[in-house]
Amino acid sequence: MHTPDDALRALASRMKCDPAAPDRFRADLERSLVPLIRCAIRSGTGLPPLVQWVQRHLPEPGPGSHRPADLEWAAPSMARQLCDHLLGQMRPPAQATRDTVVGR
Fold first, then answer.
1. Does the pTM of the predicted model rise above 0.90?
2. Residues 6+ apart with CB under 8 A from 17
3. Are the C-beta atoms of 54 and 40 separated by less than 8 Å?
């Protein structure tokens, strides 16, 4: 069974991280997530795993706010948070990298 996080990790890995330019990859990933997150906030549409993630991580609106319009400001910070999560999931555990050394 696939979870929404599995689908989001697959999306990030398909973007093909350039090991020579991790900062650029991160910036590109964040930038590409912002409009998708805004769409999910506004209308609840988009890739189901992303929409589910957005719904779980939306900040609480302030008093008297109109939820979708007032929460669009949150998209860049949510993109940063999701990017952190995805990149953390893509990093191999330290033990796995040590076990793959040839000749030891």
1. no
2. 25, 90
3. yes
